[in-house]
Amino acid sequence: MKKIGSFLLALLLLLPAAGLAADGSSNVYAGYTYDHYGNVKSTPAPFLLEKTITSENLRGIALDSVDDICTSRDGRIFLVDGKQSRVHVLDSDGNMLKTLKTIRDTDNKIVILEDGSQLMFNGCQGAFYHEKQNELYIADTAAQRVVVLDGEDYTFRRMITRPDNMTGVTEFKPAKVTVDNADRIYLVVQSSYEGIIELNEDGTFSRYFGVNEPQINIVDYLWKSIATDAQKEKMGKIYAPAFNNVALDGEGFVMAVTSDQSASKPVFRLNFQGKNVLREMGSFNVMGDLQTPGESDNTFVDIAVKPYGTYAVLDKAYGRVFLYNFDGELLSVFGSKGNLAAEFRIPSAIAWLGDKLVIGDSALKCAYVMEPSDFGKALLDANEAYYYGRWEEATAHFERVLRLCSNMETAYVGIGKNLLMQERFREAMDYFKLGNNREFFSKAYKGYRSEVLRDHFGIIAFIAVVLIGLVIGSEISYNRKQRRGSK
Amino acid sequence: MKASITKEKLGWWGHALVHPFDGFYEIRFRNQGSLLLAFLLMIAFAVMRCLSAQYTGFVMNLTNQDELDTLSLFISNISVLLLFSLSNWTVTTLFNGKGKLSDIYIVICYSLTVLIIGDALVCFVSNFVTLEEVMILQAVQMLCIAWFVFLIVAGLGTIHEYSLGGNLASIVMSIAAAAIILFIGILLFTMLERMVSFFTSVGQELMRRL
Q1: Taking the model in full, what pTM does it have?
Q2: Smallest CA–CA distance from A449 into chain B, residue
Q3: Is pLDDT at A106 greater than 90 in this prediction?
Q4: Nearest to A139 by CA among A91, A181, A78
């Protein structure tokens, strides 16, 4: 009887462990990554659903779409609803603070435009919270303007319309907006092939920025080289692909995603010249899923970057979120399409809220607030500490990662790099081998080899001297024999 | 006595590696080749390939050790050699080649010696190099492959008494022939498989109904 009792107790203890997804092991919340050889390796889910924001959170105001999400550092969430032309402001717990449609000035009067109409959002699709000036930028797409509001009381500050000195054929229909530390404004116009519109602080046109390099196709090139001018005229031009979304990373670089087929890469990190300086130090380039025959590519619609360079890219095609560190190493992938909680239909926007992720779905008309699991927290902490050069702390976090998931090659490499810096070459080699990083293994091995050579210099030098002596000796005796023979 | 290994034959083996025209002439027309030695070299080559897949230093070794299948690596290496011998023989018998199947086999396997030595050297040294020094080992590897190709071309040309152009054409055609043999082989196996599954299902039906 006692035995049966303890058996039942054991069963009871086992049950919740199998049922709860606290460790992220249940199906919906599973994650994966790729190893060095391109095999899918499962990981625990890095993020778990904390709560869902729907129109219920908005005191009944209809939420018809979530086109963009941005957050402020103090934890406010801004949801942009392009269909209702509203911007909702929520606190970090999902409670509504304010909803914006008509814009008021500081005297609480509705702003009246020059033509006498009230200033109302019209098909707004993007928002950006500019921490430096405490300003909220709203890309009011259909109205062809950017509205700048005060970050505290959401009163009208200014409006940016099409600059007079703007060149090119791109229509001024800003869909996404980002402002950098020098207050330059970057506007993404959907299906623009001229690049991101960069405006100066005062709203004048500066240039087209980050012209997306089109892939050069050798077949096209051959055809063009033999075609006559008249034929070329008919072939139509190949334009640069269009960006879907932009974000600003911690160092002030503009990160942009594109899903255009002709783009050479899906993710860009643009320096001030507009050149792509994305770090791609992982086993594979930053490309989302590795291509498998018969499956279409990922369609990246949004990107969210942490101050320490870890970024999440949102894929519309499969409803997946790809987590990369600043080196471009894939950390983990999670999310799927479906009808269960935290599954997507048409994911549209993603933003960091501290260590949490806010992901919007325009078909489900909701936003998920997802908090990092133990595993996800360890990943974020490790990469943060590593980025800021706190090696000891990073190692501790990487060890935490490995306890939860031994498939993480980046964690082994992270520990190895720390050991390498401490000149513990032999241990570093083991970790680099586990992390399948030949470049750093080689560095560690170089150190180890010179250590061994130094320690055993006497014996090695002795062997070398003996060998050289033998060779010289045999040459001399051979020559003597030859001479004797010739005599 | 083609199978036996004598001291003289070993001498000609060594000679053929550095003087292929001369050496393979002796092997072909003065009967100085050894089938047994050729067979041993083939086995040694396949074993060396497996060894280098497993024991090449981590810096140079790009095979996934978790998925390494030594047996299939061994068999595939050997079957490529046998397939090429066979296809070269089928082509050259049609185009006045003087070499017999055994001669072709001996030429190919003797030439492998260079690759065996190169593999062994690279496999051993690669355990003591850094990424920058891998270049040197790759150069050694390329050199071995170039020498191997030269031996094969020279050897086959000698035993078949071909001109250089005819020889190269016969080699290209034997590669094509190998592809055809493979195709027919795969066809045969799939047909056989279908036949077997057909008869087994007929048998099962009979057993169920009777």
Answers
A1: 0.81
A2: B128
A3: no
A4: A78
How many Cα atoms sit within 13 Å of A219 on the Cβ side?
0
A50: which DSSP letter?
A: E
**Which of A37, A438, A443 comes nearest B64 by C-beta?**
A37
- Nearest residue to A28 (alpha-carbon basis) of A416, A251, A319, A342: A342
Per-residue pLDDT tens digits for A326-367: 999 999 999 989 888 888 999 999 999 999 999 999 999 999
Exposure string over A89-99, b if 16+ CB within 10 A, otherwise e? bbebebebeeb
Going through A172-310 in order, the beta strands assigned E by DSSP cover 174-179, 185-189, 196-199, 205-209, 245-248, 254-257, 267-270, 300-305
Please state the CATH superfamily assignment of the domain spanning residues A28-372 in this structure: TolB, C-terminal domain (2.120.10.30)
The residue type of A204 is T
Please tell me which of the candidates A37, A39, A446 has its beta carbon nearest to residue B130: A446
A209 burial class (0-12, 13-18, 19+ CB within 10 angstroms)?
buried
For chain A, the domains span: 28-372, 373-480
Q: Length of chain A, please?
A: 487
- C-alpha A461/C-alpha A456 separation (Å) is 9
Contacts of A441 in chain B (CB under 8 A): 58-59
Could you tell me which chain A residue has the CA closest to the CA of B127?
A445
Write out the H or E segment, with its range, that includes residue B68. none
Task: Please indicate if any CB of chain B lies within 8 Å of the CB of A426.
Answer: no
A442 and B132 in contact by Cβ < 8 A? yes
Domain A373-480 in this protein, CATH class: mainly alpha
- Side by side, the strands of the sheet bearing A196-199 are A174-179, A185-189, A196-199, A205-209
A449 contact B CB<8A: yes
